[in-house]
Prior knowledge:
Strand content: 35-45%
Strand order of the largest sheet: 1-2-3-4
Order of helices and strands: EHEEEHH
Number of strands: 4
Number of domains: 1
Shape: globular
Amino acid sequence: xxxxxxxxxxxxxxxxxxxxxxxxxxxxxxxxxxxxxxxxxxxxxxxxxxxxxxxxxxxxxxxxxxxxxxxxxxxxxxxxxxxxxxxxxxxxxxxxxxxxxxxxxxxxxxxxxxxxxxx
Length: 119
C-alpha cells in the first residue's frame, strides 16, 4: 500500500484595517504606500480585510508541513485585492489585532488608542 500525500490550502482571516488608520500610518511613517485610499476596483469601502494563506502537506490525513505562506489585502465589497509583502503584513496585522480586541470588548477605548499610537 502506497502513502499518498495531498496539498491543502488554508486561509486564515486576520482582521480589518480601517482606511483612516491607513492614512495616518502613511502620513506618519511613509509606509504602506502601495495601498490606495479607496478600492481600485469598486471605489467603495471604509476598511480592508487582511488574510493569511498557507499550504499544508498531508499524508493520510496527518498534517506534516506548513509551507508557502502568503498574505493578502482585500476589499470586503468586491474582494479585489493583492498580495502583501511580509513587512506590510506585519504592520497591518498589528492594527487588525488591536481592532479585533477593541470590537470584542477585550480592551478599553484608551488602550485601543494607545495601541494604535504605538504602531
